[in-house]
Amino acid sequence: MLHPYYQANLVEAGCDEAGRGCLAGPVVAAAVILSPEFDTRALRDSKALSADKRDRLRIYIEKHALAWGVSSTCNEVIDNINILNASFEAMHKALDLLDISPDLLLIDGNRFKPYADIPHKCIVKGDATYASIAAASILAKTYRDEMMLQYHQRYPDYGWDRNKGYPTNDHRLALEQYGDTPLHRKTFHLKARQLKLF
Fold first, then answer.
1. Cα separation of 4 and 10, whole Å?
2. Mean pLDDT for each consecutive 10-residue tract of the chain (198 residues)?
């Protein structure tokens, strides 16, 4: 069972992102506030769940969370401000969408750029520890996967329906064969001779 809260009697928003290590597509972040009555028994880190289970939990979270927001930062901005800052930007934009102001932010990972004047706590492997972060990880992952499936229709040669933009062998080989797309992160780009290093 995941912990229902970090500190009792505070309104906590869990934050997480998906797509940080990808070669293509946006980074997507989510922020979620759960009520004390929210049934957390099925929640897990999104990576530990099947796609079908994630999709069902997404519906449940959106229906029963006190508040939630999902936002993204595109590959061009990632190239301009780097992936770490782009992840922070996506989280901030997701927090902007909450219609309840939290007292504390629970951030998955070890770094965060302060948001407004709200205190935050960075938690390594927070998505496997706290329910609100796990819920955010599920929303971020499902929204990003959905985006990459749509992008796959435009650029079917890169296997984004399977790899979702991550640097799998088939994605790297497609980059070598076809070059990059407007959705690839240029600062992550692997030239043909670099591919031989993997």
1. 11
2. 94 98 97 95 92 97 98 98 98 98 98 98 97 98 98 98 96 94 87 43
